[in-house]
Amino acid sequence: MNVLIIGYHQQFFYQAKLLADAGHNVYIATGTGTGSLDEYSVSIGAVGVVKEPLPAVDWTVDNCTWITDAITAHSITHVINGLPWVAFIESIIPEDVVYLGPNVAAAELETNKFATRAAISALGLRTSPVLLEGSSANIAADLTSCTERPIVVKPKTVFQNAIILQAGEEATLTSRLGEEDAYDYYFERFIPNMVTEACVYFVIANGQWAISSTWALGGEATTKGVVLPVTSWMGHTTSDTLSSDDDTAVRAFAATFLDMAKTKGGNYEGELYVGIDNAGLVHWIEYSSRPSSPNVAPVFCSAAEYIQSLTSDPSIIASAWPSDFKFTDLVASEALGSVYPYDLHATHSVPIPVGLTKRGSTYLLEHGGLRLFSEGDLPSEFVTAINASGTCTIS
Questions:
Q1: What is the three-class DSSP state of 60?
Q2: For residue 237, what are the CA distances in angstroms to 328, 369, 376?
Q3: Which regions in the chain score pLDDT beneath 70?
Q4: What fold, for 2-100?
Q5: How far apart are CA 67 and CA 35, in angstroms?
Q6: What pLDDT digit, counting tens, does each position of 156-184 carry?
Q7: pTM
């Protein structure tokens, strides 16, 4: 196979490695950066199809001839798309090329948050009340009209970040939105008494869905804060297992939603985010019709099974997940540029991480930290060696 992956930086790192290790040709198209594909992705066998920085609004049929040209030039057989705003690409690629990604209707579950919210409510699932509808062009006046804090500012129909506004941050938010093109938004009540946020990782294919895993998240308020963190989400979020009761409730919520989502079509991996309050009730937060950026879990089936699962049977990817999976958070000693002891992964048989920067023979932590995957606990010798490195730590 000749596979073209359209996605964020290292979003499909493990999928690309899986396919390349199986002898397939893997090309990665990204509209975020110039020059060559990053060295770390090249080291796993990927080839770059790189475009100068291209904002989401500028991914149009007319601007994407570089994608279709790459499909022709490299005799691409499969396109895997992880950018919801590029879902239209399915309609302009050759008919004999297999498209694996959200179609337009599935992508809009992520990009049209206001309509998705209404659909969620219609299913009888919990959503937070809308406090105000408006436009970022009138942010100062809207913040005066709505005095409740904290609130979540969500775009209605464009691909923009949700923002959590705390008391005293109004001027900063006004300045931030003033630097962007105006868009319609709504203010949503922050989930009262929320105890934890949970993520559901799933696969939709061939009109079916399957859940791969669930876990709890911490630190997401920093990721979605008014002042964006210097480093990526990996440097300040945490993960943990859900309690048995919370897991049951989250999976039930997800099942109701995914029964609706599968009717939209598409063949893709995605993530559903919910909040759990102090009464154990589950509330809608948001939906991603793609793996996160970057996706930090390996693929546990073979390359052939991976393609088969995305094409026809989502349970293949989902059932291959180990039951004792665990994420461990590693913190860099410096926000940017800490040298990472990469060789320890081979020494202790720990899967290599996603999110590194490679320069020559040196591997660097450029995101404030990493999320490491393991089946069960990480080997104690690996943890000891990491903590002795002087450049990063695992608590």
A1: coil
A2: 11, 10, 20
A3: 31-35, 219-223, 228-237, 293-295
A4: Rossmann fold (3.40.50)
A5: 16
A6: 999 888 999 999 999 999 999 999 899 99
A7: 0.94
| 307: phi then psi, degrees, rounded to nearest 5 | -65, -40
- Tell me how far CA of residue 119 lies from CA of 73, 148, 175, 381, in angstroms: 42, 25, 32, 49
pLDDT digits (tens, 9 = 90+) for 266-325: 999 999 999 999 999 999 999 999 998 656 788 999 999 999 999 999 999 999 999 898
Neighbours of 118 (CB within 10 A): 13
Class for domain 129-189, per CATH? alpha beta
- Cα separation of the two ends of the chain: 42
The CA distance from 224 to 152, in Å, is 9
Residues 295, 12: contact at Cβ < 8 Å?
Answer: yes
The verdict on whether omega for the bond into residue 84 sits within 30 degrees of 0, i.e. cis, is no
Q: How many CB atoms lie within 10 A of CB 122?
A: 9
Could you write out the DSSP letters of every residue in 189-238? EPPTTEEEEEEEEEEEETTEEEEEEEEEEE-HHHHTBSS--SS-GGGT-E
Torsion angle in degrees (nearest 10) through CA of 200, 262, 292, 212? 40
Q: Which residues pair with 325 in a beta bridge?
A: 375
Token representation of residue 273: 């985010």
Parse the chain into domains and list their residue ranges: 2-100, 129-189, 194-394
Residue 160 near residue 183 (C-beta atoms within 8 A): yes
How many CA atoms does the CB half-sphere of 177 hold within 13 Å?
29
CATH architecture of 194-394: 2-Layer Sandwich (3.30)
Q: Residue 72 corresponds to which amino acid? A: T
Burial 135-159 (b: 16+ CB within 10 A, else e): ebeebeebbeebeeeebbbbbbebb
